[in-house]
Amino acid sequence: MTRRAAALVVIAGAVLLAxxxxxxxxxxxxxxxxxxDYKASMVIRETWFEVKTFARTVLHHKxxxxxxxxxxxxxxxxxxxxxxxxxxxxxxxxxxxxDFATAIIEKVTPPExxxxxVVRVKAGEVCHWWELSEKxxxxxxxxxxxxxxxxxxxxxxxxxxxxxxxxxxDGTDLVKLERGPVAESDVRPPKRIFEPxxxxxxxxxxxxxxxxxxxxxxxxxxxxGRTEIRLLRHYPWRLEDRRGPDGAVQFxxxxxxxxxxxxxxxxxxxxxxEARRSPRASSYxxxxxxxxxxxxxxxxxxxxxxxxxxxxxDMKPDILRPAVKNVLRAECVTRDGMPLKLIGRDASGxxxxxxxxxxxxxPVDIKEMMPPRExxxxxxxxxxxxx
Length: 387
Known about the structure:
Number of strands: 25
Radius of gyration: 23 Å
Largest sheet: 23 strands, antiparallel
Distance between the termini: 31 Å
Number of helices: 2
Shape: elongated
């Protein structure tokens, strides 16, 4: 396990531990800015259920790092700058994927660090152990510290983290270290990661559109008119673009039949970019990117709006959370699937109610489903891209 808070990500049927916040071991710890360029080959030691080892490669150039970990059947790559960029880009693919299947960008926070004064030797490198701790999200939750061993010129050559209350430690150890110039292009993320065409390319030929999946263009607002949502469908694609009064944006486009889509959130400090393009595993009953299409009739009296009748559906069903009670999201939709009303929760968990102010049944072009360029521009996330 990594040191980050874990979130489930399904990639071609494989369950991974992915980005969930914090700086952790996705990029090395640096105590100062004057660390030389280097390439390090390391071994990862994990003690979850049984001891396993994996390969880790670190490239560093003027503060920027690229970290690649091969944990068969999954390979992950992380890009970031410890001091100058608050975002971490995390990529993953399984061995049967021809290219990356998941990309996540999240804001991260450097840990609090102190030199323990303990000196060790790792692969011939004398290093000092530093103790690192992340700030707890809540005052009553303790984040266990981990350790990083830095060489005399500041290169991380080992890490260690206690696994719960067990005596075994997860960690990394240096195998080989090469000091010397690293090309800037070697620590830049690939250009295609920020291109919608890469993530939203149709995976297959899709069946005829069902009668309850009409194309539409709907605009909704809250009663006070301060928050607006635009909803589009180009079957099997859905788009939702939410704009708040403070300029916050929550944008999402996804495929109702695949584990495929892109999402961007710029709410408060929770800036996040997510994109996936994995084929849905046969053993996984719904798309991992979004479950909105798995709707359940709430068996409520029909409603009406703008001269049309609609039926209420729970759009985020959960077998542990019966419909109607504690609904995360509900929509009142027409027979052909066009939403007229929406009840959901905002980022703080507060209930919000939306009603359509403009509705139009019309053919929607797939080009209309692309995310606005300003939301996915690499510079917005602090990255300069490579080829």
